[in-house]
Amino acid sequence: MADYLLVNGRLVLPHEVLKNGALLVRRGRIQRVIEQGFSFSPDLPRYDARGAYVTPGLIELHIHGAGGVGFDDLGQGPGGDPASAVASLVAARGFLLAHGVTTFVPTLVARDAELNALSAAIVAAGFDEADVPGIYLEGPFIAPSRRGGIPLDAICDPDKSTLSRLIALGRGKVRLMAYAPELPGVGAVLDAMRAAGIIPCMGHSDCSLDRITLPEGKFGITHLFNAMSPFSHRQGEEGLAMLPFIHDGPFVELNADGVHVNSSALRASARTLDPGRLMLISDACVAAGLPPGEYSYLGRKIVSGADGVRYADSGVLMGSNRLAPDILRNWLREIGASVPVSVGALTRVPARFLGIDDRRGVIGEGLEARLVVWEGDFESVREVL
Fold first, then answer.
1. pLDDT digits (tens, 9 = 90+) for 281-323
2. Alpha-carbon span 319 to 180, nearest angstrom
3. For 20, left (φ over 0), alpha (ψ -120 to 50), or beta?
4. For residue 340, is the peptide bond before it cis, meaning its omega torsion is within 30 degrees of 0?
5. 65-84 average pLDDT score
6. At CA 301, angle to CA 295 and CA 303, rounded to 5?
7. Where are the alpha helices (DSSP H) in the chain?
């Protein structure tokens, strides 16, 4: 419905939950946020939330796949069929919508064929930019010693010609790129990234903070604590994981799936980091949202279970089987943070980071009415409006 009145909702606003709140929606945008007791024209269509939480659509900022679709494998269908790649991407979007995710950034390692297939599918699918703001490349300019689940053949030294090739293959869709700030020649690459509108994200790094230069402008940290030099008290060994605790500049990704980062580190982050820059992520992969078992990723067997998703042959953790609602519930359970702050880490903050906060991320007047009505305490989606 383009025009309607939502009533009897627990509206999750940036700083409060408005009980028995109402929303007046005109032409698909929120015209007014209303407290209880306001009267309306009886001929306006109504949606009764029946006391349920109502949030902005969740944002999956860092996601490699879900529901049996891997974004790295879109070009691996029969004959690399472009139509098959588009169909897979559309199916993944539908799967995520059913889980309350209205915006996602497909993430993949920096391989030419995979990037070409993904960017072509995004263009062909014709997604709204607020639905799919771009592509997140993990690499290729990262430290091999901190590669985590990234294959060695998807890693190289910083090189402007390599970046130019990736930008061209990305068809203007590359939005975020993880890089290791200690690598030689990274400064020139950063300048080229900025010129192309790519937001740099420090990660997969073995740096010491006293030997790197922070990028100018907006930048992020890729999955804090994972695949990076650690928090340390030793002189000259201040790892990248320390940066957001001593510097208020970066936007920070934190995986709260209960596997990638332990509860103590989650609590330390919640107590210390600026909630206006903390973004919860899933790092979900092809097995996310599906039953435990064996799956395939880039031709390798992976196993999804209680300890995350791991390569079968090495046991290396390569992704998560949780999605954004699971991340939200686990964060609320482990941290006890307020609902507005917690929801904001999956909506308001990543929208600001991606530059789509003029359209998405908040229940606010003038913004798109891309809303999710939840069952219980975010256990499942009742409806996406």
1. 999 999 999 999 999 888 889 999 999 999 999 999 999 999 9
2. 20
3. left
4. no
5. 80
6. 60
7. 82-97, 112-125, 160-169, 186-195, 243-246, 263-272, 324-335, 339-344, 348-354
Contact 225, 243 (CB under 8 A): no
**pTM of the full predicted structure?**
0.96
Please pick, among 131, 257, 283, 326, the residue that the annotation labels catalytic: 283
Superfamily designation of domain 58-354: Metal-dependent hydrolases (3.20.20.140)
Cα-Cα-Cα-Cα torsion 137, 319, 353, 276, nearest 10 degrees, comes to: -150
Task: Say whether the peptide bond before residue 140 is cis (omega within 30 degrees of 0).
Answer: yes
Mean pLDDT for 59-77 is 89
* Domain 4-56+367-384 shares a fold with domain 58-354: no
Q: Which two tokens stand for residue 347?
A: 């909506």
Position 75 scores a pLDDT of 63
The distance of Cα 83 from the centroid of its chain, to the nearest Å, equals 26
Q: Is 307 a catalytic residue?
A: no
Rounded Cα distance between 56 and 13, Å, is: 9
Closest CA to 179 of 225, 216, 147, 218: 147
In whole angstroms, what is the distance from residue 180 CA to residue 212 CA? 10
Contacts of 37 (CB under 8 A, 6+ apart): none
Was domain 4-56+367-384 assigned CATH 2.30.40.10?
A: yes
| Alpha-carbon 178 to chain mean position | 13
What does the pLDDT look like over 183-221, one tens digit per residue?
Answer: 999 999 999 999 999 999 999 999 999 999 999 999 999
Mean pLDDT of 328-342: 96
Q: Evaluate whether 245 touches 290 at the Cβ level (below 8 Å).
A: no
- Cα radius of gyration rounded to whole Å, the chain: 21
232 — pLDDT class (breaks 50, 70, 90): confident
Q: Percent of the chain scored above 90 by pLDDT? A: 89
Tokens of 77: 């269908």
CA dihedral for 306, 312, 315, 320, sign (positive or negative): negative
Q: What residue has token string 């809303």? A: 371
Containing 14, the helix (H) or strand (E) segment is none
In the chain, where the domains are located: 4-56+367-384, 58-354
